[in-house]
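Lab notes, practical 5.
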Amino acid sequence: MRSILLAFGLAFGALLMLPTLSAAAEENAAPAEKSGEALVITVDRAKVFRVTRPAATVIIGNPAIADATIEDEQTLVLTGRSFGVTNLIVLDAKGDPIVDETLVVRGHETNTVRIYRRSERETMACAPVCEPTLTIGDNNAAFTFASEQIKTRNALSDETSAK
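Output from the prediction step:
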């Protein structure tokens, strides 16, 4: 009985760790013209986005949700800041739109496990060992714990590099 439970637990854990093929395909897709579908990016991840004509102006509807940086006149780097939906508008030098798309920022799923205790959630990054990770939407105690550890580690790193 014990070995059956262990095998079930290992199989279930393996299923949680598998990235989906559709998510991987979405991660690599970055349409350059109006396609009618939303552009999907991930929180805390950068995505290269190419446009077909030189861009002069880039507008993000809600900069708290996403950020855009012009790498060169036909390459943008989009970064997800928080969960949500906003829009991306790219204009050429004459003010004509090159891109006008809905931008969806979602949470990361690959190599993560979410632990639910009633209404409380905690997220672990597992690659291969599971460790707490800073994820929007986690309970305050887990979020604060991970945040404080990251700040402390970064301060130690800053002190070491300053010497």
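Observations recorded by the TA: Residues 1-34 have pLDDT under 50 and may be disordered. The radius of gyration is 20 Å.
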